[in-house]
Fold this sequence. Notes:
By secondary structure, this protein is mainly alpha-helical. It has one domain. Helices cover 89% and strands 0% of the residues. It contains five helices and no strands. Helix 2 (22-61) packs antiparallel against helix 4, helix 2 runs parallel beside helix 5 (126-171) and helix 4 (89-121) runs antiparallel to helix 5. The mean pLDDT is 91. Pfam families: MotA_ExbB. It is found in: Cell membrane; Membrane. It comes from Shewanella gelidii. The chain crosses the membrane at residues 22-43, 90-112, 132-153.
Amino acid sequence: MMLFLMDIWDSVRGFMASGGDVLWLVAAVLFLMWVLMLERYWYLNWISPKQHQAIIAAWDAREDSTSWYAHRIREAWMSQAKQDLNARMLIIKTLVAICPMIGLLGTVTGMIQVFDVMAVHGTSNARMMAAGISMATMPTMAGMVAALSGVFFSTRLDAKMKISLERLKDSLPHH
């Protein structure tokens, strides 16, 4: 088992080395994005239902659910629930959007390295140019993969949040 983990670590280190320093930035943004998305999934599945049940119980305990004041209270509770559900979603969507940009930063830095090799050694040293090309393509690929995973799961998360909010709205009847 330990040998297997060492092999995996060596593969990750080799991949990160072939992509340059920008690949570490992509990894950090990806890690932060996934921590925030997992926190939102946790909130949506375990915390939010309890809060929604408390709101429903408070609404059902009200004697007045038809007056103008009751409607404003219902709207305030719905607004608070929506705000709690959508917390940190803007950060997640921003991180998803910047992943490809960070990958493009890696492309630029890799191509600068290729041009440096060409300026010093000429175009005859293909091996040295290959390292720069690798540093140009790896971060771009990693940034796109990170963004695609983030788009897929943040969209699913957003849809689940909307469904949860609609269920809460349907549980608070007003006449």
